[in-house]
Design brief:
Layout: H1 14-34, H2 37-40, H3 54-76, H4 81-104, H5 110-129, H6 131-135
Helix pairs in contact: 1-3, 1-5, 3-4, 4-5
Organism: Xylaria flabelliformis
Subcellular location: Endoplasmic reticulum membrane
Transmembrane segments: 13-34, 86-105
Length: 136
């Protein structure tokens, strides 16, 4: 049995890329339920951040798991336009979430969210610019 049969079979690198943030989100979901809220909510440590608590960690974990599932599904069904658009919107949602938390509500700082901005911004540009190719 070949190990690579479990990887997406579509041409291009985007399906493989989508596996990375999907896996990261799934792992962070586990962290939100297993670790203390202080550890799992470190990205929300800005000057106006509320004290970390279990409810916030679990809500963030739920957000991460559905984002992860959409991205995993999109990696294997990249030519489905509805799934492609949903996956694109998960990156829009991350940018919207962190932009609001950093610049409006000040519950996060840029140094804790920079990776999310770069990853989501890059993914969004990639997915929008290559949409026609993957859906043709």
């Amino acid at each position: 049995m070949n190990t690579f049969t479990f990887l997406p079979q579509h041409e291009g690198y985007l399906p493989y890329f989508l596996l990375m943030p999907a896996l990261m989100a799934a792992i962070h979901t586990v962290a939100c339920y297993v670790n203390s809220p202080t550890v799992s909510l470190t990205q929300f440590s800005g000057p106006a951040a509320p004290p970390p608590n279990g409810l916030l960690a679990r809500v963030y974990g739920v957000k991460n798991i559905y984002t992860s599932l959409i991205r995993f599904y999109a990696a294997y069904h990249i030519s489905n336009p509805q799934i492609y658009d949903l996956a694109t919107l998960t990156f829009v949602g991350v940018l919207f979430l962190y932009a609001g938390e950093v610049f409006v509500y000040r519950t996060s700082r840029l140094k804790e969210t920079a990776f999310s901005f770069v990853l989501s911004g890059s993914a969004l540009v990639w997915m929008v610019s290559q949409r026609e190719w993957y859906l043709s």
